[in-house]
Specification:
heterodimer, A: 573 residues, alpha/beta, Ubiquitin-like (UB roll), Alpha-Beta Plaits, 3 domains, five-stranded mixed β-sheet, four-stranded parallel β-sheet, 19 strands, B: 156 residues, alpha+beta, Arc Repressor Mutant, subunit A, Glutaredoxin, 2 domains, 7 helices, elongated
């Protein structure tokens, strides 16, 4: 039901049941907030969104107050502005004020708001809090002195990620956000997905930087510097650097990275192809032996840690294939090392990803061979963009260059894996291809591209059926469990921690608008329709690796290096 | 202790959030504090993550996470007691025991906490020793009191 309300002496249409804020936003009036997140229940924690409602003595929070027919609202009256300004001044009263050195500098919502409200001096002084810096996690740093207690991270962790690793501890002046028993992150049930980093309005939660380490090695002539990046990274970098993205930019990025000082630039997509191939083989084997247990794709490192903690019974069903990043990493340290004649310990291998959990994954147990780690350092898209800016490369003036051999290309299936449902689709298609020798009909997988948190599809492969399920975000897991409890059996299950898949990963730029993400997904789907090579096993890179390089290298010819193991984790849940 | 928690849990219905506080209160009453084990078990029983349980429990002053001493002192620091000089009493206790409020001494004899109003405003500062109230406490009395209490505990 629509009705009219009066806002700033003008009439606007509002819908019954919606909040004041959503009615205002729809009509082009922007109200700042620090705690609101779209699609979440409002909490009214930050109080920035206050507005004046005629007839109400106190200001009301627009984000949580339902709109009513009689309302006469003033959104930017002197009283409201003063209140908002005071609130921000109070938030800043114990803030460290180290914006120049802060991770979120120029991306900080609090900073932006202080600027908007024209706060030019520290009017209110309070004792600064100096809590311990939690650097224990490989992926996330917790800097509580910058926390404004908006509770976004707590809500994301509980409602989207469902691990509930963060909550408010204590109360009053001692209140802070932390994991169970006030421990550090490395002992908590945190799965390093980093969605809390994406929603944090300040720099209280941010990724752990590896940029200094990379710089150090870039200047070390003893090492061979190698970088791999996944198909999604190029679009993220383009966005961070303010360039319009097209698929040609990937080749430009290669040349940019070489200018920075990386001697070899590889496509992590080549590793994805191998990863897909190995999983498809496992699936073939499983179907042949008629296992009724499903095969869970283990490419998402956050999901793997989730399974190890919350569903340890499931570990035997997890595919033992390493994630694309690790597969590419191990190829660099074995095949590439052998080809170039450089000892693997003299290779410094960097991976650029749209994911924070990859930082953790690279340090996992089993991701090492003879004391040499598969991947030495993992950088997010944001870090890599920073590195590019630091080295002063004029990105508008570079010639496109191809990737280096032997990991120089990938099939369109590989880029598909970075969208939720895409990994399962790619494995399913490859499985059918390996079985029938023909490319599978893509229409069969259409249902996996829908936008609900749980999707399933049954694919016919001649005589038998292949049942695929996809949990998009860990909220989809609940539905999956229900279906399984009701007696449904699946052959292949994909779980992605970040809703929507890696496109919404915590290593991507902060500023991404929703449309931007949708375009990213569309580009990937379009590429899948138009690219010449759709199936991994048709990719010349993969054929070369399997037919020649792996066979020639005795150490790895059994392909065991592509596999790892998982263990139950003993953490407080 | 393991057994105690299970016995308490049996009295409640599993999977109900509203049972959490009474449950934690009973564990605290029996054990004197909420151990990590108790929080894990309560979490599993109610169906909440330990993070949430710890968050809720730390919100309330009544819950402790380390065992209390054999003698547990509670000093009122409410407005009235504060005006009558509870600050000096607290300082004296800190000096004599050598640890902060909320902690327990190494020998496990003493622990002390600062609380808000205990309802004895006109007799302030109020000090409760294992539930027994002392009124109009002066800082000079503290050393003797602690010595006496320690003697009683050690010769009990």
């Amino acid at each position: 039901m629509l009705f009219t309300i009066q806002v700033n002496n003008r009439k606007i249409r509002a819908e019954k049941g919606e909040t004041i804020l959503s009615a205002l936003n729809r009509n082009g009036i922007i109200i700042p907030t620090l705690c609101r997140m779209k699609d979440f229940t409002p909490t009214g924690a930050c109080r920035i969104c206050v507005v004046e409602v005629e007839g109400r003595e106190n200001l009301v929070t627009a984000c949580s107050q339902p709109v009513e027919e009689w309302m006469k609202i003033r959104t930017h009256s002197p009283r409201v502005i003063t209140a908002r300004k005071t609130i921000v001044e109070l938030l800043l009263s114990n803030h460290p004020d180290d914006c120049l050195y802060c991770d979120k500098n120029l991306n900080c919502e609090l900073q932006k708001l202080a600027e908007e409200l024209n706060i030019r001096e520290r009017r209110i002084r309070a004792r600064k809090i100096k809590p311990r810096l939690d650097q224990s996690s490989h992926a996330i740093v917790r800097e509580l002195s910058k926390c404004i207690l908006c509770g976004r991270c707590v809500r994301v962790c509980e409602e989207v990620i469902t691990t509930t690793s963060l909550d408010f501890i204590n109360k009053g002046s001692k209140i802070h956000v932390g994991p169970s028993m006030d421990r550090d992150f490395n002992f908590s049930s945190c799965i390093n997905c980093g969605q809390c980093v994406m929603v944090c309005p300040t720099g209280a939660l941010h990724e752990k930087h590896n940029i200094n380490e990379v710089q150090e090695y870039l200047n070390n002539p003893e090492f061979m510097k190698i970088i791999q990046y996944s198909p999604l990274v190029a679009s993220g970098i383009a966005e961070e650097l303010g360039i319009r993205y097209n698929r040609e930019f990937e080749r430009m990025l290669n040349s940019i990275l070489r200018k920075i000082g990386f001697e070899k630039v590889f496509a992590a997509g080549a590793g994805t192809d191998i990863c897909l191939y190995e999983i498809a083989e496992q699936l073939t084997e499983k179907v042949k032996e008629k296992h009724d247990k499903p095969l869970y794709i283990s490419a998402c490192p956050a999901w793997v840690k989730y399974a190890e903690q919350f569903m340890p019974d499931l570990i035997p069903e997890l595919s033992t294939v390493k994630s694309p990043q690790q597969v590419t990493g191990i190829l660099i340290k074995t095949v590439v090392a052998a080809e170039t004649g450089i000892r693997p310990e003299k290779i410094f291998s960097v991976s650029a990803t749209p994911c924070l959990a990859m930082k953790f994954e690279a340090r996992r147990d089993g991701m090492m061979r003879k004391g040499i780690s598969d991947v030495d350092t993992v950088m997010t898209v944001r870090e890599l963009a920073r590195l590019i800016r630091l080295y002063g490369v004029d990105v508008s003036n570079v010639a496109p260059e191809p990737f280096d051999e032997p990991l120089s290309g990938y099939s369109s299936s590989a880029s598909l894996t970075e969208v939720s449902g895409g990994f399962a689709e790619a494995v399913g298609r490859l499985y059918l291809f390996m079985k029938t020798g023909k490319e599978a009909d893509r229409q069969m997988f259409r249902k996996l591209r829908m936008s609900v948190s749980f999707r399933e599809v049954t694919v016919n492969s001649g005589e038998e059926e292949l049942k695929i399920a996809v949990a998009d975000g860990l909220t989809g897991l609940e539905k999956l469990k229900r279906e399984q409890a009701a007696g449904k059996n699946y052959d292949l299950i994909e779980v992605m921690t970040c809703p929507g898949g890696c496109v919404n990963g915590a290593g991507m730029p902060f500023s991404s608008a929703r449309d931007e993400k949708k375009t990213r997904v569309k580009t990937i789907y379009l590429a899948d329709d138009t690219d010449a090579i759709n199936t991994p096993s048709k990719s010349p890179v993969l054929i070369n690796i399997y037919e020649k390089m792996i066979k020639e290298n005795k150490e790895i010819s059994d392909r065991k290096i592509f596999h790892t193991h998982f263990e139950k984790r003993d953490v407080l849940l | 202790m393991d057994k105690d928690i299970d016995v308490i849990l049996k009295k409640f219905k599993p999977g109900r959030r509203e049972e959490l506080l009474p449950l934690l209160q009973e564990i605290q009453e029996t054990n004197g504090h909420l151990s990590e084990e108790a929080i894990v078990k309560a979490g599993r029983f109610v169906g909440l993550s330990t993070t949430k349980i710890y968050g809720v429990a730390t919100f309330y002053d009544q819950f402790r996470f380390i065992p209390s001493g054999k003698v547990c002192l509670k000093i009122c620091n409410g407005t009235s007691c504060f005006m009558s000089g509870s600050g000096a009493v607290i300082n004296r206790i800190r000096e004599e025991t050598g640890f902060e409020a909320g902690q327990t001494g190494r020998d496990g004899v003493f622990s002390y906490e600062i609380t808000t109003c205990m309802g004895g405003c006109h007799h302030g500062p109020v000090l409760s020793v294992n539930g027994e109230y002392l009124t109009s406490v002066k800082p000079e009395q503290i050393p003797d009191l602690l010595k006496k209490l320690k003697f009683i505990i050690e010769n009990d």
